[in-house]
Amino acid sequence: MIYHFARCIRCLIFGLLTLSASMLGAQSIISGVVTDISSGEPLIGATVLADNTNLGTVTDVDGKYSLAIDSESRTLTITYVGYKSQVLNINTRVLIDISMVEGEFLDEVVVVGYGKQSRTKLTSAVSTVDEKALKKLPVANVSNGLEGLAAGLFVRQGSGEPGFSGSSFEVRNFGNALVIVDGAPGSLDELDAQEIESISILKDAASAAIYGVQGGNGVVLVTTRNGTIGKPKLSYSNQYTFASFTAYPDVLNSEQYATVLNEGLRNAGRDPFYSEEQVESYRSGSDPVNFPNEDWKNLLFRDQSFQQRHNLNIAGGNEKIRYFVSAGFLDQGSNYTEDVLSYQQYNIRSNIEASLSDQLTLRLNLAGRRRVNEAPGYSAYNIFRELSRALPTNIAYYPDGTPARPSFSPNHILEGIKDFNAGYYRANNNNLDAKLSLQYDVKQVEGLSLKSYASLVYNTNYQKEWGKSYELFTLNRNSGNYDVFIASPEGSFSETVLTQSLGFGNDYVLQESVNYDRQFSGHSVSVLALGELQKRSGQNFFGRRQDFQSNLIDQLFAGSNENKDANGGEYRENRLGLISRLAYDYKLKYFLETSFRYDGSSKFAPGNEWGFFPSVSAGWRVSEEPFFQALRSTIKDLKFRGSIGTAGNDGTAGYQWLSGFTYNFFFGINDTAIPTIDNTALANLDLTWETITTKNVGVDMSLFNKDLTISADYFYREKNGVLAFASGSVPSTLGVSLAAQNLHSYSNQGYEITLNYNKKVNRDLTYNIGVNFSRSRETAEFIDEALIEDEFMRENLTQTGNYTGLRRGYISDGLFQTPEEIEQAAIQDGGTNASLQPGDVKYVDLNGDNIIDVRDQKVFGNGDKPAYNYSLNLGVTYKSLEFSVLLTGAAGYDIYIDGEAQSPLRNGFNGYDYQLDYWTPENTGAQFPRITDGGFNDNNYRYSDFWKRDAKHLRVKNVFLRYALPKSLMNKVGLEDAKLVITGHNLFVLKGYDEDFDPQMQSSTGWYYPQTKSYTFGINISL
């Protein structure tokens, strides 16, 4: 597979190089050096264009250029950011050196909804991600690289499991954002970072309302790379990564487990289970068969996993045709000691832009992606659950290698995953993506253009889950032989079970637009009118059989006809939008922009399908006023802006306005299984989309010759008509499922600050400092909830009027230290406190009735969604060396420790080593309560702030070092440049709690595949 893939890429690149050579044929070569006229320093990346031939190139790291020209060429045009453009006559010269004079800084062009706009003209809240910083990060998923790179973007990676390690990301904590890739809905994690040219974050309604019912939670716009004018440039990059867990606690060894178990039995008034001699035998390891000290964590996991990524791309072209072709490969291994968990991703892309005439431009983007997952029959959740429970006193394998049956579980986690003994999970996802646009510039009307755009994305997803039994053994000490035990596959009572599923989908987007962009003596007008049709459809089905005659045949036909199952479904979804935008500015000083979208969705009943989503924004560039000129030497640019707009959200199941039926239980009639049907929920003809209104004010400024830029925003957002069920106010005795309603209301408010300082000290030294800080919290303005009659409880437990996601429960007051303290305390065991002992958790009697019950609960935690995100990016470049450090963090949220993560012996299982700081008469200042037999204690494990941990943290997210090899060496080997790269990612985190879990953990018990830290080595080559 990989061989044929590579062969196709080689053929494609050879063809492009041949095509380029034929197009770039020339009669003479012009070369020279482009420098700064004041310092004489070479300018890297200056563009040099020749007329008539439509050919061009860019200068290298020494400011040198070489350009093949036609005999008809008469002039060269040289441009460089921050310098005045020059046009020079060629005459008969073949060596032309150019000295550039500093001028006005070229304005950054930002991708916005259905177009582009200069940053100077922006009146809405839009952040951009530095694609160069993104490409420094050795991450398997693009989403994992976004943390800390843009203000207002809240990113959280919940797992490091290969193939399932993508991050959730939200704009301003609003919810899942809409992702648009090259003009159509898509996914970040389907892309190779080397394919990306820019990422824009549309944060307020003025920028996102143009996406109507899909833009309510913000929009992430991704633009892939296009070709550039110049000779073909072939680039290759690789990354070789070694990864380990960022944090995961050790489990108790046999000596610790035996000691803890004895302590729990003593506290229960029972005799110890292990004698002192037996505990010593576990400690010394003198008899590993009868007194084993099994390290299940060490058996399951290795210190390092391996990941590799490769990308090969070529870009080039002229003013007639430009191209970018890329091929990428990712191979991600796991930290399991057995090679049973892996993920591969293949990416190929071809972006072509052709000027068919002076008026007609064609763009064709073709991309293909293939993702391959393989995992053991035991999920990561179950593997880490079994690890937390695995008893070190159970031997994993007898001395002859025979797998021993554990006493703590019917399964053997290591033997089950080894050689896929308990089965496997395999998945293949194929994605084909084609985008075609044709733009016609109307010569008869200056500034008028017409554009047609079409996008087709075709997805197929195939999954196969094979579960099978395997043998475990127990040594019969009487006979000396092994007794056999059959371990069944996960979640099944059958010895063999197979499930296969297939789904495919088609996503279509069609757009027709008219754009008018014109300047009239200081006035600038831009008008967009666009119609868009979106259509999504797909089908899925699955089959399941069990009780196979042989576990060697993992095909459906070999399963039993008994207890088999098959199912399937289909979905269809349509949207139609009419869009308009008008932007006006006067002398780049006063700005006004308005837009609307009239959207229709097939999800709602006739009469409610259509919605109108308007927005308006304005800006004032104060720095252009005459009265401000005295400050221009310090403050180069100062702009105030404000916006208000309405967007929507139709992210709900369709056709809830119709009543219907669903297949439910099966009943046996005359030995035949007959399916029954049941009513769906009540219908609601009035159901429509959520309405989201956002107000935003902001300021953008640049100081000290634009070395320092500052951007700050404050926003307030109202979300009304949120779909919910009136389960709080309607009694459950209604007898039918309730209809969804546009019922709840929420609001968000917050602020963002971005500071960037970039300084070029001299020819050899530059440095930069970047700071991002964001704050956003959501308030429940109205939640349908049952009326709480008790005034104290109503004040503390009502959700309406409070932040969402808050934790509510009991308030702890440390641990009881003496029997006398228990006697004087409020009743908290439902009786006379007779069940309590010193070392148990003490709770606060909030309402003063001397009884700890539900009336003593209140808010004690922020919940698991951060309210604050912050980052610091430091970078320095000295000659051929580049070094950067990215620090990220979050605050205003917490994690909760639950289940086996609270105490050892829970349900009779093992524990984590951090739990050894438990209360005893000799350790009264312990962090954890006394040990109880079996880990059960209704008092100690109530939902309370005792188990809450403040998750604020600061993480060393990325450390990057790159060295460019000497140009003289590159010339000898025929390369344009080569750079060696070393990167450390997720190196360590500073946090405020002792438990060895990552602050981004999303499992309160610790049953998840942890995030990883890594070290990466790579090389980037261009020719």
**Spatial gap, N to C terminus:** 27 Å
Overall spatial form: globular
Strands, count: 48
Low-pLDDT segments, ≥5 res? 1-26
- Name the helicity range: under 10%
Mean pLDDT across the residues is 88
Largest sheet: 22 strands, antiparallel, barrel
Radius of gyration: 33 Å
Oligomer category: single chain
Q: Which structural class should the secondary elements be placed in? A: mainly beta
Helix segment tally: 11
Q: What proportion strand?
A: over 45%
Your description of this structure?
The two termini are 27 Å apart. The strands form eleven sheets. The protein has a 22-stranded antiparallel barrel. The protein has a five-stranded mixed beta sheet with strand order 10-15-16-13-14. The chain has eleven helices and 48 strands. A hairpin with a 5-residue loop joins strand 2 and strand 3 (56-58). Mean pLDDT is 88; it is low at 1-26. The chain is mainly beta and 1023 residues long.
Give the gist of this structure.
This protein has 1023 residues and is mainly beta.
Q: Any descriptors?
A:
1023 residues; mainly beta; single chain; 11 helices; 9% helix; globular; five-stranded mixed sheet
Walk me through the topology.
Elements: H1 2-23, E1 28-36, E2 47-50, E3 56-58, E4 64-69, E5 75-79, E6 86-89, E7 98-100, E8 109-112, E9 115-118, E10 126-129, H2 131-135, E11 153-156, E12 168-171, E13 178-181, E14 184-185, E15 196-202, H3 205-208, E16 219-224, E17 230-245, H4 254-267, H5 276-284, H6 296-300, E18 305-317, E19 321-333, E20 342-355, E21 360-376, H7 380-389, H8 413-417, E22 423-442, E23 448-468, E24 470-475, E25 482-487, E26 496-520, E27 523-546, E28 565-586, E29 590-601, E30 610-621, E31 635-649, E32 661-669, E33 672-679, E34 690-703, E35 708-724, E36 741-760, E37 765-782, H9 791-797, E38 807-810, E39 812-815, H10 819-824, E40 841-843, E41 857-861, E42 868-878, E43 881-891, E44 894-896, E45 948-950, E46 953-964, H11 967-973, E47 977-991, E48 1012-1022
Parallel strand pairs: 1-7, 13-16
Antiparallel strand pairs: 1-4, 2-3, 2-5, 5-6, 8-9, 10-15, 11-12, 13-14, 15-16, 17-18, 17-48, 18-19, 19-20, 20-21, 21-22, 22-23, 23-26, 24-25, 26-27, 27-28, 28-29, 29-30, 30-31, 31-34, 32-33, 34-35, 35-36, 36-37, 37-42, 38-41, 39-40, 42-43, 43-46, 44-45, 46-47, 47-48
